Amino acid sequence: MTDHPSRPRLGIQGPVVAWQDPWAKEESDAIMRTGTGVRLDSQDPTPTVAGYLSLLRDLGADFHVHHVIPGLQGQAQMLYDSARAGLDFVLGNEYGNINGPFVPGTNRWDVPAELLEDAAATGGLIGVLYDEPEHLQINADQYRKDAFHPHFASTDGLAAEAAADRVADSAAAIVHDVDTATTGAGARVPVLAEQVFPVLFHTLARGGMTPTPKIMKESFQPLQLSTALGAALQYGRDFWVCADLWGPDVGPWFTRAPGFPGHAPAEYASALRMGYLFAPSHLFTENIDVLIHHRGHDRFERTEFGDVWDEFVRDFIPRTPLEWSFADARPDIVLIHAEDSNFGRGTLPFGNRGASAPRASKSVFAAWHLLSHGSIPPDGSCMHIDRYTFPRHALNGIPRSTFPLSQGAETVTHTHPLFHPVRNTLVFDETVTPDRLGEPELIVVAGTRLPARTRDLLRRRAESGAVVVIPRWLAGPTGGDRERVGSGAWIVYDDLLHDDDAKLAISTHLGSPDRWTQRFGDTEVVFEAADADGVTLHAEAVASRSARV
Q: For helices 75-84 and 113-122, what crossing angle results, to 10°?
């Protein structure tokens, strides 16, 4: 499939358990290729290189995401085979993060510069992917057990602002090294921060990395996308989206491992459309394991998830050309908060073992709770918090040798919805500039830090008609809890969840509790729940005319 300006470029991430890396074969089964903490033997026969590349093309992929085997067995050949097949590629670092060897003082593996140079020379390298780097900065012992070494840099003993600077500086050094190694590519090769937790998006974008949010997974979709998109726009980065099929739920569908996939086929169909309508430059899915069952001798069978992908590529995209880009996003509501790296557990901020997240950082969760009509919980920004349990754990007792299962469970669970009602919101950090802020009608401020220059900017926006809702600890010297400022309002709160004036001011701007909207230029994308649990979506793009999609 050739590139087309009216749609994102489409990609598929390679296998982690379905079959061996076609270029590394046995060496790929000798390492852990998933974050499950156990080594999993491949379940299907390994296809030929030609068969695998042909499969990717048949699935409509413009590129594939290939996590590099740390021993580099067969990896140089992969570059040339992909280029000869006319298939671009992204090189990822996940297997090295899991298995080592590590960059000294970190839990990170970097794709070697020599391989990047060779990849750039083929003309097929379009990205270098860092897998869940925010997770591995905070939870530094996720894979590396011999010592606590965060992904980017140690932050022990640092205050939040200094810790964020150190992480951003480390990200900038990585981006510089990739730039240096890929000068032969003909164009700058983006360094992707593929993130599961909705923290550090702005910090890593400041360091030069490209926000690449995972959708589905265990995320609250509007929060995840509004945060990542805000970071991309604020720092002038590209915007990629990964539709990740790992997740919390089980059901009567093809299952490779507990939680893989952890979303129903119907949810996957809605998520692909959702990600597409945000008009990223690139959209890829993780992983091919769930789409295809290889029966041997390059005989591939699509699963129910493969059928969903096929319908998306062959039917939905051709009849839904995009007339907007992610870069056209213009918010009616802006949430401003400095990065504290707290997603709800409150521990190890920025990977700092001697600190806990300050109480004020919880105001971000309160803001999202109100902005979502109470749909997003008030105590965390994703489902990795104490209130949630994941049905996928019930499959842990099944011997791994019996996978894949034609049905993971007889009864479907509905732990993870896609829908939360949020009206056209973007998230910026505390350094947002006047041009990027624009003229939103409601600005909610939360978190722990706000420079005086940004506070002055917000006062000017209030004078011009915006309603600004701001915590007392960031408000500076003001006249009272509620002020008329020019044609707008300045409302100061102590506890957002229990401040009636602040809650009323926010509620008057929220729109319908049955709609999630995002505006791109003159087009508003509208999502509504298509079922009682909000697991699936109806979507509509509303411009000069309406077109149901």
A: 10
Report the alpha-carbon distance of residue 489 to residue 479 in Å, rounded. 12
CATH of domain 9-325: 3.20.20.70
> Which tokens go with 160?
């939040």
3-state secondary structure 30-80: CCCCCCCCCCCCCCCCCCCHHHHHHHHHHCCCCEEEEECCCCCCCHHHHHH
User: What single string gives the DSSP state of each residue in 107-141?
Assistant: S--PPPHHHHHHHHHHT-EEEEEEESHHHHHHSTT
Are the C-beta atoms of 193 and 174 separated by less than 8 Å? no
Name the amino acid, one letter, at 195: Q
Distance CA 320, CA 444 (A): 34
Tens-binned pLDDT, residue by residue, of the chain (549 aa): 334 458 999 999 999 999 999 999 999 999 999 998 889 999 999 999 999 999 999 999 999 999 999 999 999 999 999 999 999 999 999 999 999 999 999 999 999 999 999 999 999 999 999 999 999 999 999 999 999 999 999 999 999 999 999 999 999 999 999 999 999 888 999 999 999 999 999 999 999 999 999 999 999 999 999 999 999 999 999 999 999 999 999 999 999 999 999 999 999 999 999 999 999 999 999 999 999 999 999 999 999 999 999 999 999 999 999 999 999 999 999 999 999 999 999 999 999 999 999 999 999 999 999 999 999 999 999 999 999 999 999 999 999 999 999 999 999 999 999 999 999 999 999 999 999 999 999 999 999 999 999 999 999 999 999 999 999 999 998 767 889 999 999 999 999 999 999 999 999 999 999 999 999 999 999 999 999 999 999 999 998 344 455
Do β-strands 442-445 and 9-13 pair in parallel, antiparallel, or remain unpaired? Answer: unpaired
Every domain of the chain with CATH number 3.40.50 lies at 333-384+419-507
Environment class of 4 (CB within 10 Å of its CB; exposed 0-12, middle 13-18, buried 19+): middle
Single-letter code of the amino acid located at 65: V
pTM: 0.97
Question: Which ranges in the chain are annotated with CATH 3.20.20.70?
Answer: 9-325
**CATH topology for the 333-384+419-507 domain:** Rossmann fold (3.40.50)
Under 8 Å between Cβ of 82 and 108:
no
